[in-house]
Amino acid sequence: MIDRAVRMNYHTNLLELEEHMYPLVDVEKPNVFRNLFPYTEVPKIAFNDRIVPHHMPDDIWITDTTFRDGQQSRAPYSTEQIVRIYEYLHQLGGPNGKIRQSEFFLYSKKDRDAVYKCLEKGYKFPEVTSWIRASKKDFELVKDIGLKETGILVSCSDYHIFYKMKMTRREAMEHYLSVIRDCLEIGISPRCHLEDITRADIYGYVIPFCLELTKLMEEYSIPIKVRCCDTMGYGVNYPGAVIPRSIPGIIYGIMTHAGIPSELIEFHGHNDFYKAVSNSTTAWLYGASGVNCSLFGIGERTGNTPLEAMVFEYAQLKGSLDGMDTRVITELAEYYEKEIGYKIPPQTPFVGKAFNVTRAGIHADGLLKNEEIYNIFDTEKFLNRPPQVAVSNTSGLAGIAHWINNHFRLSGEKQIDKNSELVAMVKAWVDKQYEDGRVTVLTDEELLTVIDECCGRLGVKLK
């Protein structure tokens, strides 16, 4: 009988029975969890009611993949655009560097030029890191530039190991470890991207692989990060869900059974099932210090976890922005629209043109009385975006009055009342538009023209 040690967990202040070791299970046939992922049916979420504890780290942060995964689904950014966005990320992250790192491709001259120019900025945060495939040829690129850390693609599901790489689990592990050892030999810190972890054999492959990483860390005294990549968006945050779909279960296993500390664990989510944000927050709650994001969620297929979303998730969990300047989010959105030509869907939270715009007359009436009634927080303070009212046939007198006061920045005694003659005249014109068959919301330009005409007839000046 094996005598397992009892140890004190000083985070929970509970005695724990040390689990047995997890050796590599080198299967002959791939385990693709067909019971959970029947390809001709919708994937299944199963439960075994095994609950793991919350374990939120003292320090959590955001890392950025805008220039890596974010470039895999759109036209590549120019060198100048990359540098400008990097500057914005530095400003957004604030003096405490809550946006800790940003990762870059190294394959084209344009990308390498961007890396050099970003390094020239001398910013501590976001730290410039790279991403490579697990090949010695790619490793030479990292070595030539002299970066301190690089991400390495280490696909971990049998879908990838057997079907894409045409290897066994042991062959894949030995291949990955050889490239990781090459990095460690010259002092580069590896970041292992465990691709497709939510379809991987967690205790038959992922945990054994991570245990090998802990041995290498002890041997070289160099940190090795583990990034849990929910590549297909299959992860769920429900307590008691079975692995490999359980994000709490994955983070708990890597931290508790493989011994990887929170500060070396990241989560990278995709939004195929609308769960990228909730899964990223869950990763924080259960022990990952880092969540990897891209601006506006731009990324492969349905995209990654939106970076701006996690800024506000951080503030809600920590009760503070810790120095992050959220007004930069609006500047970034404007830069993407005007300089890059990327159209952000108008209802996108925090950055879409209509994210805090109301069209209902009863909502507009509430906003006019007290904006807290229908605005999520002080959007003018945090995003330079005061709440807006779009004028249509449902806006009513209150909606028109709010639009005028907001557009012309009228406050106090200068505010226009919903019962004023000006508002009544504008509403009469609006009603006529829709009586004549209009179905679309009125544009700002149309409203300004009508308001100017009505002000002229009334002898009123709004500025």
Q: Can you describe this structure?
A:
- This protein is elongated.
- The mean pLDDT is 93.
- It has helices at residues 79-93, 109-120, 136-145, 158-164, 169-185, 202-220, 247-257, 276-286, 307-318, 327-340, 361-369, 379-383, 396-407, 421-435, 444-458, and strands at residues 6-9, 14-17, 61-64, 99-104, 127-133, 149-153, 189-194, 225-230, 265-269, 290-293, 357-358, 388-389.
- Helices cover 40% and strands 12% of the residues.
- It is of the alpha/beta class.
- The protein has 15 helices and twelve strands.
Q: What keyword list fits this structure?
A:
40% helix; two-stranded antiparallel sheet; 463 residues; alpha/beta; elongated; 15 helices; 8-stranded parallel beta barrel; 12 strands
How would you sum up this structure in a few lines?
40% of the residues lie in helices and 12% in strands. It is built from 15 helices and twelve strands. Helix 7 (247-257) packs parallel to helix 8 (276-286) and helix 14 (421-435) crosses helix 15 (444-458).
